[in-house]
Specification:
66% of the residues lie in helices and 4% in strands. The N and C termini lie far apart (118 Å). A two-stranded antiparallel ribbon has the order 1-2. It has a two-stranded antiparallel ribbon with strand order 3-4. The protein has a domain of 185 residues. By secondary structure, the chain is mainly α.
C-alpha cells in the first residue's frame, strides 16, 4: 500500500485530492467520473416519456361505461293529508273514501257564513275609508263639495253607501265652518288692533296740535312776563302743561308701535295656523289612503 503524499505548509495541511483519486490502494491508477449530468438527463427523459404515455392513454381510453338497473317509484304512504289554507266548518263532502280524483277537483265545501260576515265588515270599512279620502281631498283643495269616486257612486243604491257619503258631506261642511270661524276670530282680533292703532295715531296727532298751539302761547306769555304784564306762575303752569302734552305724544307713539308689533305677530299666527291645518289634512289623507289600499286588498281588489 502506498501512502498518500501530503504537502505541509506553515498555515494548514492540504490533501492532494488528485493524487488520492488517481492512486489505488492496490498500486494501480483508477479514474473516477465526477460528472452527474448523464443520470439527470436519463431521469428527465423517463419522466417526459411516462407523462406522454399517460396523456395518450387518457385521451384514447373509453370512460363512458355505466351500470343500468330497473325499479319502481312508489309514494311513501297510501294516505295523503288534504286541508284548506284556512280553517272552517265543513258543510259538504263531495268525494268518498277510495275515490279517484283529479287535480283541481273540489273535494269538500266549507261553511262560508263567518267568512262572508267578515268580508262584509271589511267592505264597510273600505267604503268609509274611500268616502273619508274623498272628503279630505276636497278639504285639501278648499272645495265646498265632495267628488266621490265612481266606485262609491256605482253603489248609490246601497243604504250604507248613501249614509257614508251624507256623513262625510256634513263633516266637510262642519270642519270648513270650524276652520273659517277660527280664522275669522283671529282676523277680528287683528282688526281691533288696527283700530287701536288708528286711535293712538289720532290721539298723538291731537296732542301734537295742542303742543304747537301751547308753544306759541308760551312764547307770547314769556314776553309779557318779562315786561311785567303777565304773572310768572301762570307761565310756569303753561310750561308744565306743555311738557305733559309732549310726554303724551311720546307715549302714544310708543303704544302705536307696540300695537303694530302685535298685529304682525297676529298675522304670523294666522299663517302658521293655516299651515298647520294643511299639514293635518295631508297627514290624515296619507293615513286614509294607506288604510283604503289595505282594505281593498283584503276585499279581494
Amino acid at each position: 500500500m502506498r501512502r498518500v503524499a501530503c504537502l505541509r505548509s506553515t498555515s494548514s495541511s492540504v490533501i492532494d485530492m488528485s493524487t488520492l483519486l488517481n492512486e489505488s490502494p492496490f498500486g494501480t491508477a483508477v479514474q473516477v467520473d465526477l460528472n452527474d449530468a448523464r443520470p439527470i438527463r436519463w431521469g428527465w427523459l423517463l419522466l417526459i416519456f411516462g407523462f406522454g404515455a399517460f396523456m395518450a392513454w387518457a385521451t384514447m381510453a373509453p370512460l363512458d361505461a355505466a351500470v343500468s338497473s330497473s325499479g319502481t317509484v312508489v309514494v311513501s304512504g297510501s294516505r295523503k293529508l288534504v286541508q284548506p289554507l284556512t280553517g272552517g266548518k265543513v258543510s259538504e263532502i263531495l268525494v268518498r273514501d277510495g275515490a279517484q280524483v283529479q287535480a283541481g277537483q273540489v273535494l269538500v265545501r266549507l261553511d262560508d257564513t263567518s267568512a262572508r260576515a267578515q268580508l262584509d265588515i271589511v267592505r264597510g270599512q273600505w267604503l268609509v275609508a274611500m268616502a273619508t279620502q274623498a272628503r279630505l281631498e276636497a278639504e285639501q283643495r278648499g272645495r265646498a263639495s265632495i267628488d266621490f269616486p265612481p266606485a262609491l257612486l256605482e253603489l248609490g243604491e246601497d243604504t250604507r253607501v248613501v249614509e257614508v257619503m251624507a256623513l262625510q258631506s256634513r263633516l266637510l261642511e262642519s270642519r270648513r265652518q270650524l276652520r273659517s270661524n277660527e280664522l275669522q276670530s283671529m282676523e277680528a282680533a287683528l282688526r281691533g288692533l288696527e283700530y287701536q292703532v288708528q286711535g293712538q295715531e289720532a290721539a298723538k296727532y291731537s296732542k301734537e296740535t295742542q303742543s304747537r298751539m301751547l308753544r306759541e302761547e308760551l312764547r307770547n306769555q314769556k314776553s309779557l312776563a318779562d315786561d311785567g304784564f303777565y304773572p310768572r306762575n301762570r307761565v310756569s303752569e303753561q310750561e308744565r302743561l306743555f311738557a305733559s302734552i309732549q310726554g303724551g305724544v311720546a307715549e302714544d307713539l310708543n303704544s302705536a308701535g307696540k300695537t303694530r308689533q302685535a298685529i304682525a305677530e297676529g298675522r304670523a299666527r294666522i299663517a302658521a295656523r293655516q299651515q298647520e291645518q294643511r299639514k293635518d289634512i295631508e297627514s290624515q289623507l296619507s293615513d286614509v289612503q294607506r288604510e283604503a289600499a289595505s282594505l281593498e286588498d283584503a276585499c279581494g281588489g
